[in-house]
Amino acid sequence: MSDALRIIPLGGLGEVGKNMTVYEIAGELIVVDAGLAFPRDEHLGVDLLLPDVAYLHGKRVRAVVLTHGHEDHVGGLPYLMREIDVGAVVATRLTLALVKSKLDEHGLGQAAEFIEAAPGDDPLELGPFRLELVRVAHSIPDSVALVIETAAGRVVHTGDWKLDHTPVDGLRTDVGKLAEIGNRGVDLFLGDSTNAERRGTTGSERLVGETFRALFPVRTGRILVASFASNIHRMQQAADVAIECGRKVVVVGRSMRKNLNIARNLGYVQLPEDAIVSPGEAADLPPDRILALCTGSQGEPMSALTRIAYNDHKTLFVEPGDTVIISAKPVPGNELRVHDSINQLARLGAEVLHEEIAPVHVSGHAYQEELRTMLSLLRPRYVMPVHGEYRMLAAHARLAREGGVPEDRIVLAENGSVVELARGGVRIVDQVESGITFVDGLRVGDIQDVALRDRRRLADDGVLIVVTTLAQSDGGEIAPPELIARGFAESDELLEEVRAEAGRVVRELVAQKSIEVKLLQEHLHDSVGQIVYERTRRRPMVLPVVIEV
Fold it and tell me: Rounded to whole angstroms, what are the CA distances from 541 to 302, 343, 530?
């Protein structure tokens, strides 16, 4: 059996998201990270994108090792564990708590052994793999880089990281440990490439807190801060300043509430119990007493901030004098959605601050000078850029060349590449099946599965198309809906009732000024589908179409 180490990225190369890397030696495997990505507009009917794990079918994974708790690194774990025999999940304390909660929701809480590890612990023996964790700073606590030692050599896999000299929790990237590992000798370096095109160094997380400290005391209306639900330190800083200013904190959005509760229970967030109020209690407070921490920084159609922007939230709203802070950078592909939310919030009279006009966000990924520092600390024999679109990987490769790494020792791989580390060096030796697995609801499979399911549904129950016209130039006037039925042989009375229900939904949304297209479609879909099911016990495919003129 070969004593070479095979490194097989199944996701995260040539893209941002769904990070997953297989390490295999002597018939034993570990997997580093199990992430997901979110669909773009062209992925109709798809909820999530996962790595294709066909290569792992029939194999046993000794352990999945997680570098940190972001969705693009852990969100695919439940789907992986449904398909693959996983012996253990290894992660730091906060990361493990976040994934345990996720696995419990999927009924997989007992599906593997959970091993809590921490930087500074003795190396973990996982069969032929010897695993060591190194603390790194990122935009979520408990992030680590990995040192993976095998008979074939020593590999450093950074995860997501940056050099933050003043982190909120005081836990800096352990450059001393990285230098010591460099002195031992690093055969192969797999490094985060997200910001490899950006010059200089990224700012400290504390810079955002300083911005909050300057902004909050002079604001007289509601303050809403939208960020990623996992950005624990961002929420802590915003809440600290708000409490000092006499405001109560309301947390809006299921994922943010869950993550904050987990972080509080583990001691990663310190908030007085009496400082937190429910959305219902917040509705009774004066505007200058409210700080809302909410999801929706990416303009997600059904997120808290988007619902608030379109007057579709049950308890929270914005009005002139309020301030909305979008404390995140749009993920590539989400820019238009974010701009739509900003425009709608501005239309309601709120002042919207985002990273293009105010220092309300800093990246969690290393810029060029930090990448150069990492390369000089580790002095690897071979470099393999990972975690980024191809242009980012190429930029990281250029930095390595400038740092003295020979051209023939830089490996630019792609998803599915089989990279082999052996005594003779590092090279790409093969290509395995890789790609995207689509998740639609609770179903997991390729796009053909989704298409076949839709065809069966159309054959059994037909389709109802609800068409309405939105006249943006006339202040959001909406024409009465029209109904088109195909393969849905029901009475004219039922169709008239459905048409009336659609009209009622549209009139209510117009009255509430909730005229965002995806919200309109969601409400029409749910209301029409519900009334048809109540009358017929059938579920035709309901396609709401909103035409903007």
Answer: 20, 32, 12
Distance separating alpha carbons of residues 122 and 432, to the nearest angstrom: 34
Q: Which two tokens stand for residue 7?
A: 């490194």
Angle of CA points 216, 219, 225, to nearest 5°:
55
- CA 379 from centre of chain: 32
Tell me whether residue 192 is one of the annotated catalytic residues: yes
Encode 317-332: b = buried (16+ Cβ within 10 Å), e = exposed: bbeeebbbbbbbbbbe
Instruction: Name, in order, each residue with C-beta under 8 angstroms of 138's C-beta and a sequence gap of 6 or more.
Output: 68, 159, 160, 161, 162, 364, 365
Query: Could you say which of 365, 387, 396, 523 is catalytic?
Result: 365
**Prediction pTM value:** 0.82
Look up residue 35 and give its two tokens: 């992430």
Neighbours of 204 (CB within 10 A): 18
Amino acid at 90: V
Q: Give all strands (DSSP E) within 400-521, no chain letters.
A: 417-422, 425-431, 436-440, 443-445, 463-471, 477-478, 482-486
- Catalytic hit among 192, 312, 440, 461: 192
> What is the per-residue pLDDT across 20-78, written as a single tens digit (0 to 9) for each?
999 999 999 999 999 998 776 655 556 788 999 999 999 999 999 999 999 999 999 99
As given in the structure block, the two tokens for residue 315 are 């308890």
Give the mean pLDDT of 425-440: 87
**pLDDT number for residue 459:** 67
Pair of tokens at residue 452 = 């076949």
547, amino acid identity = I
List the domains of the chain with CATH numbers: 5-200+363-438 (3.60.15.10), 206-353 (3.40.50.10710), 457-548 (3.10.20.580)
Q: 162: which DSSP letter?
A: B
Place of tokens 């695919």: 76
How far is residue 147 from each of residues 32, 131, 196, measured CA to CA in Å?
11, 6, 22
Q: What is the pLDDT of residues 371-409, one digit of tens each?
A: 999 999 999 999 999 999 999 999 999 999 999 999 999
Count of CA atoms in the C-beta half-sphere (13 A) of 271? 30
